[in-house]
């Protein structure tokens, strides 16, 4: 069983619920791990994944257990981080103190509500809640249940709220940075001028430096120390530990030297101070975080843009009148009017009028699609011209567009294997670094290089080793890649497939509906007996009426086109991969391929030539036998997709093998394969054998991407290493696939492979920078090269390079946006 099959099975057995919680205050890979591990310890939690870029924890838990939000918050807070909690104050008219407690009670029981507080004096209700779990509207309608009137609240959008928190955090960071940098420049000014050293009293200077540095430490770097202290209580270490120990040790030493210099003078040492080291490091780290936050915000722009495309209001037609309503109030069955230039609010079926719809938000294809009554329209797509009414089918979370956004968001909560490895390393990294730094301090001190020298190496080692970039390496790349591909109409459901897609060396294409448009048409009718063409067609179409096979549909359609009157088939049965059989009028009619005819005991020798001629043209010959006698042959052909040939030659140029997999006869398949430049053809494969074929290919050493329609080909897709479902724009969720191409052409396969290899390359570069770079610099910072070359890494340089490495990693990830395909 493949990992995916196992996953599907797992999902079926115990129903797993998933919630998303926004977390604030995480800075690095070890923070992510700490939060993850802590959440995982909560009872009932099956899995917790934290994304540093979206700053969300996705918690999966068994549905028969309830997850207490308070426990989640407690668990997050206990290690020094916080859940982003939104607070809203709602004025409620006539809230008597008697009913107040009832309202308070029922609201506090809602999922996602953290606390409720009623102030009877001001008639205000204050609710703290987690915006990913409950909306202001939910709270509002709960209050209204008790008959209170809630005034119109400012349209509080969940996404928007997250922006506000992020912005507030950013502004806060900026304030701290500006404050620290001013004080730090004063400190450096003093250092450079040596003014006071020449003219002033040394202790006075130290006092001034103390006064300048202390606010930098505890206001500027306050967060690092708070998280450090919270971490100590749980014996957990992270980036903050390194920064706090590094800058704290220099600071503490200086404080002692300033206030009780006798401690040092008594053992014959000068009471030196290192205030500037601490201040500069803190300021540089703040600068790095500031730049990184800015770059990080850009990584998710594509996804944000996607969410912002959902319209807020719509025109509802009710009793002949047009009223403007909120989109969230629309229900299935409602009739909605859409005018030119408007976005279609939800999914539905046109009942009146015509439209020319730009579906690029879904498919990435900007050519408008013409729509008429009976056609499906998808919410959030743009009506360019024409105005129409449609009946609503899906609203809210059920719309295609919401499902797409959800899939994109889900993909951000998954980690590719390469990151799991990095996580493992990160979890042991910090304690190891602390040991190395301590060891280097002891060694240098014992070797007699002096206290200052030992201390500076100690600090430099701690700071340069900070793994903050490690936590950004993968998620930033994945967020950019997910956004970029969504823009092109590609949904990558998980990080693993992104990693595997990059290693694929064989792409297997299903034929019907994948290489071809899947709308086969009758091209020839050949008489092989006494019946007329129309009679051959009428009898076969009468049988195929009951078949759902595209070939059958083509025959029926053609018969209808010729206005033939079809009969009712009796005793219908179909044999997958062969054909169909039924009694029509007084005849026994069989319609199917050569195998089917042979199985019916019909001698087919004399038709071999005809079969060859048609097959070599890429047509599928379908025989019609009446009372076990072949009376005719219907040739059916499907159009090859316009971009098949080009895409396949580009895939081959990348060194990837390409194969065609079909139930159709070998010659027809071969002819089509030749037209598009495919060498490997697996034909006459019965539907249930397709997955065995994939298995076989995998065993022979291929890493197989299977491209199919996601519905008929589900078993074969499930077996492949990377399952790519094509053109299932409206079936987003049902498709068994890792990657969904929303557009009905096959270029997407090439794009997927290019995006994944680019992303994977960037992730590898990022991990290298974030990690090996640290590993190389740690020994240098610890002073290993000093005895041979005199090379050392000053603490200030160490903090520059650490800050630089996270900015570099994020900026590098942004390069995925620019990929050209
Ligand atoms: N309803 C039918 N009417 C006529 N022929 C049929 C029917 N069903 C199957 N066949 C015959 O069996 C063959 C194999 O069918 P199958 O559904 O396995 O593959 P396919 O649809 O032709 O191709 P692909 O595997 O690429 O989807 C068809 O090519 C056709 O010759
Ligand atoms: Cu760091
Ligand atoms: Mg088929």
TrEMBL record:
Spans through the membrane: 177-197, 203-221, 242-267, 273-291, 425-447, 453-483, 767-786, 792-811
The keyword Transmembrane helix is annotated on this UniProt entry: yes
Keyword Ion transport (UniProt): yes
Record's bilayer topology term: Multi-pass membrane protein
Keywords noted in UniProt: ATP-binding, Cell membrane, Copper, Copper transport, Ion transport, Magnesium, Membrane, Metal-binding, Nucleotide-binding, Phosphoprotein, Translocase, Transmembrane, Transmembrane helix, Transport
CDD domains: HMA, P-type_ATPase_Cu-like
UniProt GO MF annotations: ATP binding; ATP hydrolysis activity; copper ion binding; P-type divalent copper transporter activity; P-type monovalent copper transporter activity
Catalytic activities: Cu(+)(in) + ATP + H2O = Cu(+)(out) + ADP + phosphate + H(+)
Broadest EC class assigned to this enzyme: translocase
Enzyme Commission no: 7.2.2.8
GO cellular component terms attached to this protein's record: plasma membrane
GO biological process terms, semicolon-separated: copper ion export; copper ion homeostasis
Domain HMA: 17-84, 85-151
InterPro entries according to UniProt: ATPase_P-typ_cyto_dom_N, ATPase_P-typ_P_site, ATPase_P-typ_TM_dom_sf, ATPase_P-typ_transduc_dom_A_sf, ATPase_P-type_domA, HAD-like_sf, HAD_sf, Heavy-metal-associated_CS
Location in the cell: Cell membrane
Family that this chain belongs to: Belongs to the cation transport ATPase (P-type) (TC 3.A.3) family. Type IB subfamily.
Protein name: P-type Cu(+) transporter
């Amino acid at each position: 069983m493949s990992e995916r099959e196992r996953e599907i099975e797992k999902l079926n057995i115990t129903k797993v619920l998933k919630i998303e919680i926004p977390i604030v205050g995480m800075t690095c890979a070890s923070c992510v791990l700490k939060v993850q591990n802590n959440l995982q310890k909560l009872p009932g939690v099956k899995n917790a994944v934290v994304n540093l870029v979206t700053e969300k924890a996705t918690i999966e838990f068994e549905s028969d257990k309830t997850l207490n939000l308070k426990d989640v918050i407690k668990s997050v807070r206990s290690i020094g981080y916080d859940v982003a909690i939104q607070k809203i104050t709602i004025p409620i008219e006539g809230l008597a103190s008697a009913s107040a407690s009832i309202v308070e009670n029922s609201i506090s029981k809602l999922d996602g509500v953290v606390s409720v507080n009623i102030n009877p004096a001001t008639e205000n209700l204050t609710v703290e809640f987690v915006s990913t779990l409950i909306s202001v509207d939910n709270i509002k309608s709960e209050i209204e249940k008790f008959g209170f009137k809630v005034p119109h609240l400012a349209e509080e959008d969940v996404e928007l709220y997250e922006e506000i928190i992020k912005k507030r955090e950013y502004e806060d960071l900026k304030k701290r940075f500006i404050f620290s940098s001013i004080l730090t420049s004063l400190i450096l000014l003093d250092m450079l001028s040596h003014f006071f050293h020449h003219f002033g009293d040394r202790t006075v200077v130290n006092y001034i430096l103390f006064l300048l540095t202390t606010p930098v430490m505890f206001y500027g770097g306050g967060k690092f120390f708070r998280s450090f202290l919270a971490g100590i209580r749980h014996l957990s270490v992270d980036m903050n530990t390194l920064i706090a120990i590094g800058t704290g040790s220099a600071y503490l030493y200086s404080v002692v030297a300033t206030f009780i210099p006798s401690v040092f003078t008594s053992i014959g040492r000068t009471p030196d101070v290192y205030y500037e080291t601490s201040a500069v490091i803190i300021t540089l780290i703040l600068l790095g975080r500031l730049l990184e936050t800015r770059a990080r915000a850009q990584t998710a722009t594509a996804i944000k843009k996607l969410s912002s495309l959902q319209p807020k209001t719509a025109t509802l037609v009710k009793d002949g009148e047009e009223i403007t309503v909120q989109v969230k109030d629309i229900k299935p069955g409602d009739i909605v009017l859409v005018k030119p230039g408007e976005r279609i609010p939800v999914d539905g079926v046109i009942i009146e009028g015509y439209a020319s719809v730009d579906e690029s938000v879904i498919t990435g294809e900007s050519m408008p699609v013409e729509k008429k009554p009976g056609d499906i329209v998808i919410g959030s797509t743009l009506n360019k011209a024409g105005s129409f009414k449609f009946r609503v089918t899906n609203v809210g979370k059920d719309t295609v567009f919401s499902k797409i956004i959800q899939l994109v968001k889900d993909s951000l909560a998954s980690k590719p294997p390469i990151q799991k490895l990095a996580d493992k390393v990160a979890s042991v990294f910090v304690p190891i670094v602390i040991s190395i730094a301590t060891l280097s301090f002891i060694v240098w001190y014992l070797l007699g290089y002096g206290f200052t020298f030992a201390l500076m190496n100690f600090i430099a080692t701690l700071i340069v080793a900070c793994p903050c970039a490690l936590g950004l390496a993968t998620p930033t790349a994945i967020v950019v890649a997910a956004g970029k591909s969504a823009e092109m109409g590609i949904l990558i459901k998980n990080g693993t497939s992104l990693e595997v897609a990059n290693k694929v060396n064989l792409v297997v294409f299903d034929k019907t509906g994948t290489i071809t448009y899947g709308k086969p048409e009758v091209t020839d009718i050949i008489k092989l007996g006494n019946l007329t063409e129309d009679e051959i067609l009428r009898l076969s179409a009468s049988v195929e009426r009951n078949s759902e096979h595209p070939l059958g549909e083509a025959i029926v359609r053609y018969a209808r086109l010729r206005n033939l009157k079809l009969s009712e088939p009796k005793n219908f049965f179909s044999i997958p991969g062969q054909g169909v059989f039924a009694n029509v009028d007084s005849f026994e009619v069989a319609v199917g391929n050569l195998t089917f005819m042979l199985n019916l005991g019909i001698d087919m020798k004399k038709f071999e030539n005809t079969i060859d001629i048609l097959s070599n043209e890429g047509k599928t010959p379908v025989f019609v036998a009446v009372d076990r006698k072949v009376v005719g042959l219907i040739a059916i052909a499907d159009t090859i997709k316009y971009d098949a040939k080009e895409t396949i030659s580009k895939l081959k140029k990348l060194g990837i093998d390409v194969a065609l997999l079909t139930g159709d006869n070998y010659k027809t398949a071969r002819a089509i394969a030749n037209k598009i430049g495919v060498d490997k053809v697996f034909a006459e494969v019965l539907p249930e054998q397709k997955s065995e074929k994939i298995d076989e290919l995998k065993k022979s050493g291929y890493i197989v991407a299977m491209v199919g329609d996601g519905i008929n080909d589900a078993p074969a897709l499930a077996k492949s290493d990377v399952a790519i479902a094509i053109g299932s724009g409206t079936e987003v969720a049902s498709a068994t696939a890792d990657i969904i191409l929303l557009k009905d052409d096959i270029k997407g396969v090439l794009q997927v492979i290019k995006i994944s290899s680019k992303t994977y390359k960037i992730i590898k570069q990022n991990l290298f920078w974030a990690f090996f770079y640290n590993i190389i610099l740690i020994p240098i910072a610890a002073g290993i090269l000093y005895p041979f070359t005199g090379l050392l890494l000053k603490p200030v340089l160490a903090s520059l390079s650490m800050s630089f490495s996270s900015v570099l990693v994020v900026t590098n990830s942004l390069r995925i946006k620019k990929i050209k395909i």
